[in-house]
Amino acid sequence: MVSGHLIEDLRDVAVAHAAYFYVYVFHMPLFIVLSGYLSRNFTFSSGKARKLISTLAVPYVLFELAYSLPRLVMHGKLEISLLDPYYLTWFLMSLFLWRLSTPVWQQLRWPLAVAVGLSLLSGTSSLPDELSMNRTLALLPFYVLGLMLRPEHFALLRRRGMRVAGAAVLAAGAAAALVLHTEVRTEWIRWRHANEAIGVDDLTGSLVRLGLLAAGALLVAAFLAVTPSGRTWYSGLGAATMYAYLLHGFVVKAAERYYGDWAATVPGVAAVALCGAGLAALLCTPPVRRAARWAVEPRMSWAFTRLRRPA
To answer: Which residue among 40, 42, 69, 238 sits deepest, i.e. has the most Cβ atoms within 10 Å of its Cβ?
Structure first.
């Protein structure tokens, strides 16, 4: 994800455009599936509600305000809208809404089918930007898929045969991206607009969206299959991915202004992508987490009281 954002402005280079397309097909679906899996026990109890506010609502407000500053410095515009997420903050808004809906999905007989239906229907209407409605509904199936997963599903993916198959699928996906990246409009993999805005009828758009949902789910499964199951040197960093997600945007916005001709080459793209991997690891380290915890994981116990119940 971090590398994908860093090479976004280098997409005139064919390999950068292909890599960007490939990563975007499944990087947010992967993040969303795991978020759904970790939200399986969400209820409206006081403890869960407090965590929802302190880990999503408050960071959303803080980073929505913070990301307005680079826009002010670089473009001379100060635009703040807490209902219309800017840049990376859409994920916090969408996750907040998805998590609120968790008890509903846990009670439906066919939750994934309903979520896919809503995702396809969302492409037939020009939804407002407020609450990131297009992305929230379009990517909803991945969250619901995460809710439906159980530990035994991950155990299945860890079998040797599944690991080999996963590596093959990832390789095939990369090869397909090299061939197809110029044939598929970038807006499809961003999930931001309705079919009409992308220039297709609803039938074609629904088929494309269904294909992207399937491709994303397949690549997510493949990625999870090849992910080491044992503890590694970077396992501890994995618990802090939200730090990398929310903080890397400031570096990306600054770096975009200083790309020279050297970056618009294959070696340059590779170097920038490697820097992205290093940056992601750095932003998950304990010193960075201690410095940024007040914004990413603020301590909000002072703001809560006992749950008020009607007499």
So the answer is: 42
